[in-house]
Amino acid sequence: MDRIILASRSPRRKQLLEWAEMDFEVIVRETDESWPPGMDTETVPVHIARGKALAVKEQVGEGRIILAADTVVVLGKEIIGKPRDRDDAVRILSSLSGNRHQVITGVVILNGREEIAFADITEVWFHELNASQIAFYVDKYKPYDKAGAYAIQEWIGVIGIKAIDGDFYNVMGLPVSRVVRALTTLVTAS
What we know:
With about 190 residues, the chain is α/β, with parallel strands linked by helices. The protein is built from 7 helices and 7 strands; from the N terminus they run E-H-E-H-E-E-H-E-E-H-H-E-H-H.
């Protein structure tokens, strides 16, 4: 497979593609990460990922395969983004404590005019977390660049996650096995 472009700064997505032994380079352009009011929560991360992919395509042209992704956390019907600051991270984790939420990663793969787009959903249940556990995690790990204010592969995931239903790596930011299958299909069809 030709070298792909990862249109993401996420160190976790980069790590997952490295673990999958994919040949890629990172090219990122700043994009608007807002979405139209009333958009279905499952569609939001695909919408944002498409914007990232199209921005990079505008820069590099049509001759390359571009992979973009965006992850959101959904509690009830509310999309929870990245925390603004320490207080917001504590508030977010307190709201996730003892509850079930969804992690939805939208993926867009462009190859010329061809596009593969999908959303992968993982259900996550947290144990009840006490205030000192939440404060410890926020102060030590500073999860300000993470949707939902946590990373499943860090301390809070080890002690706080009760169960998941779906792809563990999706919670890290990329349903990598599904992405590899989609890339293989795209390349085989070309």
